[in-house]
Specification:
Number of helices: 9
Helix content: 25-40%
Oligomer: single chain
CATH superfamily of the largest domain: L-asparaginase, N-terminal domain
Bound molecules: aspartic acid
Number of domains: 2
Radius of gyration: 21 Å
Order of helices and strands: EEEEHEHEHEHEEEEEEEEEHEHEHEHH
CATH architecture of the largest domain: 3-Layer(aba) Sandwich
CATH topology of the largest domain: Rossmann fold
Length: 352
C-alpha cells in the first residue's frame, strides 16, 4: 500500500517549535463536496486554506496521507501495520503524531497501535470528526488544532502525553480504554474505566496523575497478527446450535465471551459443557463484560463461578476493542501459550 507525503511549515518565517507528523487515513473528517455535491476526500495540501489558525501553532508539519483514504469500517490489520510502521520509521525525527481516522473503528485502531509499539514514549493522538471539515459546523477544526497542540506539548523538554490517545470533543482519553458510544452528537467517545487524561477549555487541563510514565525501554514494533479469533455476545435465549457454531469453527484460537454484568453467563449445563469442550481443544476464552463500566469478577455470583472453574480467563475491566486487538497481536507475535499468560496482564495501561 502506498501513501503521499506533504510538508507544511506553519511556522515560516519563524523557527518551528515542534515537529509533528499527521497521518491521514480517511473517515468523515477529510470529506468535502465536489462540484456535483458528492462527498470526496479532501486534498490535504490545502489544509492551511481550511484552517489558517494552524499557522499560530508554529509547527513543522509533515502529512502522510493514505493514497486511498478509507472509511474506517474498512480498516484491516494491514492498515494498522501501515500506521505503526510510519510512526516507527519516523519516531526519532518527530516530537509527536496525530492520526486522522474515521470514528467507527478508531477505538480498535488506537488500541492496536498502543499494543504494536511497546516502549512508545511520544504522543500519538487519534482524532477525527462527526461532520466533514467542509461543513460550517464541523467539529474537525477544533479536534485537529487541539490534537496538534497536545501532540506537541512539552514540559521540561519532555512530551506531556507520551502515549496513544483519542482526542475528541474537548476530551483526551487513553486509546486502549476508549469506546465509540455516540454516532450523532459530537461526544463520540467515552472511557468508563479510566479517567480522562486532559480536558480542553480555555486552557488544556492535563490530568498528570492519570498520564502514563513512559518506560526506559527502546521503542519496539510488533507487526504480526493472528485474526483467528471471534466474539460471542450473550443474550437471554441464546441456543446451543449458535454457541457451538462459533466454538467449533475450524482454526479458532481465541474467543471473547461478552458476558452480562460483572462477567456472568447462563449456568445451563449444555452451555458450560460447550465452553469446556472448546477449552479442552485449546481455545482461549476471555471473559469481557457487555457493560462499558465496571469489571469482570468471576466467582462473585453463582453464574460466573463455573466459568472460572472450567478455565475461562477473566478480562477484568478491559474494553472489547482492547481485548480483540491484544489477542490478535499476542497470538501473532507469541503464540497461544504465551497469550494465555499475558492476556490479562497490563501492557499499556489498558487493564487495572
Ligand atoms: N464511517 C465513518 C468512518 O468511520 C464515520 C466517521 O468518520 O465518523 O470512517
Amino acid at each position: 500500500m502506498s501513501y503521499k507525503k506533504i510538508s507544511i511549515n506553519t511556522a515560516q518565517p519563524a523557527k518551528a517549535k515542534s515537529r509533528v507528523m499527521i497521518i491521514y487515513t480517511g473517515g468523515t473528517f477529510g470529506m468535502t463536496y465536489d462540484s456535483e455535491g458528492v462527498l470526496i476526500p479532501f486534498d490535504f495540501s490545502l489544509i492551511l486554506e481550511q484552517l489558517p489558525a494552524l499557522r499560530n501553532l508554529f509547527l513543522d508539519i509533515t502529512v502522510i496521507s493514505f493514497d486511498q483514504p478509507v472509511d474506517s469500517s474498512n480498516i484491516q490489520p494491514v492498515h494498522w501495520q501501515m500506521i505503526a510502521e510510519i510512526i516507527f520509521e519516523n519516531y526519532k525525527d518527530q516530537d509527536g503524531f496525530v492520526v486522522l481516522h474515521g470514528t467507527d473503528t478508531m477505538a480498535f485502531t488506537a488500541s492496536a497501535i498502543s499494543f504494536m509499539l511497546p516502549g512508545l514514549a511520544k504522543p500519538v493522538i487519534f482524532t477525527g470528526a462527526q461532520l466533514p471539515i467542509s461543513e460550517p459546523r464541523s467539529d474537525a477544526r477544533e479536534n485537529l488544532i487541539t490534537a496538534l497542540e497536545i501532540s506537541s506539548a512539552k514540559a521540561d523538554g519532555k512530551p506531556v502525553v507520551p502515549e496513544v490517545c483519542i482526542y475528541f470533543d474537548y476530551e483526551l482519553l487513553r486509546g486502549s480504554r476508549s469506546k465509540k458510544v455516540e454516532s450523532m452528537h459530537f461526544d463520540a467517545f467515552k472511557s468508563e474505566n479510566y479517567p480522562s487524561l486532559a480536558k480542553a477549555g480555555v486552557k488544556i487541563d492535563y490530568n498528570y496523575a492519570a498520564i502514563r510514565n513512559p518506560s526506559d525501554q527502546k521503542i519496539g514494533y510488533f507487526k504480526n497478527f493472528d485474526s483467528n479469533i471471534s466474539i460471542l455476545k450473550l443474550y437471554p435465549g441464546i441456543n446451543k446450535q449458535m454457541v457451538d457454531a462459533i466454538l467449533q469453527t475450524e482454526g479458532l484460537k481465541a474467543l471473547v465471551l461478552e458476558t452480562f454484568g460483572s462477567g456472568n453467563a447462563p449456568s445451563l449445563p449444555w452451555f458450560i459443557e460447550s465452553l469446556k469442550m472448546a477449552i479442552a481443544k485449546g481455545v482461549l476464552i476471555l471473559n469481557i463484560s457487555q457493560c462499558p463500566g465496571g469489571m469482570v469478577l468471576q466467582g462473585r455470583y453463582e453464574t460466573s463461578k463455573s466459568l472460572g472453574e472450567i478455565g475461562v480467563i477473566s478480562g477484568g475491566d478491559m474494553t472489547m476493542e482492547a481485548a480483540v486487538t491484544k489477542l490478535m497481536i499476542l497470538l501473532g507475535e507469541f503464540g497461544i501459550e504465551k497469550t494465555r499468560e499475558l492476556i490479562n496482564k497490563p501492557m499499556v495501561g489498558e487493564i487495572s
